[in-house]
């Protein structure tokens, strides 16, 4: 049995699996707060790999790409619950509480891990909604989201400059970003947003930087990396094709032969 995810109320999502499950590449558009109820989540991102262990609280920053593998615990169950801290809710919270970000957040730019009894108790208090023994009204759901923000700020006051920074993403170095994130199989639109550009500006800047279209460059970059892994690391395509952003082996074999004139086994 694979993974299933269920929206319990509003922004609260419960994920469960009973065997190792590889998640799709995800573009994270909003900050979210999560709790690993059981099992482990192995997260792969531009900064490296992170293992989220059982009973861990995690804050994931918006506007990034993540790929996950989910591992059940010894009893055979994986459970993760997350609650999105969307910009609209955070804006309203900031207005009501007169909060203003006064400096760029200086902490870790990707993933944050905290061990906090109040936050852990908060997630455990959501069990009746997950188990369907209690139903949340829209008003109660809104209050639970605000409670999460309140507890998070109580635990880490410096997160004020993370959560309430509503400035638009600025243009970042395109070449550096693409070489760090080419392996994520997401739409070009996601790459554009993550680099602080509109789709049309992204395509124009991309062609100016690389001399070819984004889709063509992504394919070429992935194939070059595949060639390296096969020739110098003795890897088989089945071991890495998903990690390089290929959707299936058939597509990989076809494009590989087309580019190099040889099959992967002939290399």
UniProtKB/TrEMBL annotation:
Q: Which Gene Ontology molecular-function terms are recorded?
A: DNA-binding transcription factor activity; sequence-specific DNA binding
What protein name does the entry list? AraC family transcriptional regulator
Which SUPFAM superfamilies does this chain map to? Homeodomain-like
Annotated Cyclic nucleotide-binding domain ranges read 121-180
Signal peptide positions on this chain: none
Xref: Pfam families: ExsA_N, HTH_18
**SMART domains linked:** HTH_ARAC
Q: Which keywords fit this entry according to its UniProt record?
A: DNA-binding, Transcription, Transcription regulation
Q: Where is the HTH araC/xylS-type domain?
A: 172-267
The protein's matches in InterPro entries, at most eight in alphabetical order, are given as: AraC_XylS_family_regulators, cNMP-bd_dom, ExsA-like_N, Homeodomain-like_sf, HTH_AraC
